[in-house]
Amino acid sequence: MSSALLPKPQMRRLLARRMKFHLFGAFFVSVGCAALYKFGVAEPRKRAYAEFYKNYDPMKDFEAMRAAGVFESAQPK
Amino acid sequence: MLASRAFSLIGKRAISTSICMRGHGQAGVVKAEDFSLPAYTDRRDVPLPEVAFVRDLSAQQKALKEKEKASWTALSVDEKVELYRIKFNESYAEMNRGSNEWKTVLGGVLFFLGVTGLFLVWQKMYMYGPIPHTFSDEWLATQTKRMLDMRINPVEGISSQWDFEKNEWKK
To answer: Which compartment or compartments is the protein found in (chain B) (predicted)?
Structure first.
């Protein structure tokens, strides 16, 4: 044993300290994941759909598909 | 046992069954096997095991134990450490020490993954037959063209990557 005494370690409230750390951590990690998903996946997807349908003409799309010959009941003109 | 041994000094004839039985009867108890007695364990969640680590003390250790009954301030640092080592095998620091086992484990895992990879290569070369004709380049091109014609996944998927005016993939 060394002649100098070691500093007295933390004896009490060990679980409380651990819990506080993990509660904060869990909260921020989960909120962070949610925020990441929202702004990485959900918002771009909503924007993509909005962009797509902004100037979407279904009849024009249909005629293009018919011309390509993918329909059975609507033959190309 | 002791009674029958004492009688053997007098003469074998003196040893009678009853004395032997009596000697054995006075002992009476079956010798407790080691595994049935409380045992010492080095465990993080058991800070004070049921028995001390050292069971049979040497003469020196017995003397130290006697000294322990007096005032503890009379004990030197080395004696205190010796008393600790009598009671415990490893300190918490020693008990919790890390090891290099993870390197062995990781190495073994990677090695066997490599062996598996070699085996898969052999399989592809010598065991499997040819892949279906629907994986040929011509077929895949026709397939993709048809998917674009049908406007598959026009919002975020494949048809959104094709420029229908210029008839080419979007940059």
So the answer is: Mitochondrion inner membrane
The CA distances from residue B69 to B49, B54, B77, B138, in Å, are 21, 18, 16, 94
Q: Which CATH class is domain B35-97?
A: mainly alpha
Mean predicted lDDT score pLDDT of chain B: 88
DSSP code at position B169: E
pLDDT for position B62? 94
Residues of chain B with CATH 1.10.442.10: 35-97
3-class secondary structure for B83-109?
A: HHHHHCCCCHHHHCCCCCHHHHHHHHH
Q: Which residues contact B151 (CB under 8 A, 6 or more apart)?
A: A61, A65, B159
Q: pTM for this one? A: 0.61
- Compute φ and ψ for B14, nearest 5 degrees: -70, -25
Following DSSP, what letter does each residue of B50-89 receive, concatenated? SS-S--S--HHHHHHHHHHTS-GGGS-HHHHHHHHHHH-S
- CB contact, 8 Å: A1 with chain B? yes
Chain A residues near residue B77 by CB distance under 8 angstroms:
1
Beta bridge partners of B43: B46
| ipTM associated with this complex | 0.77
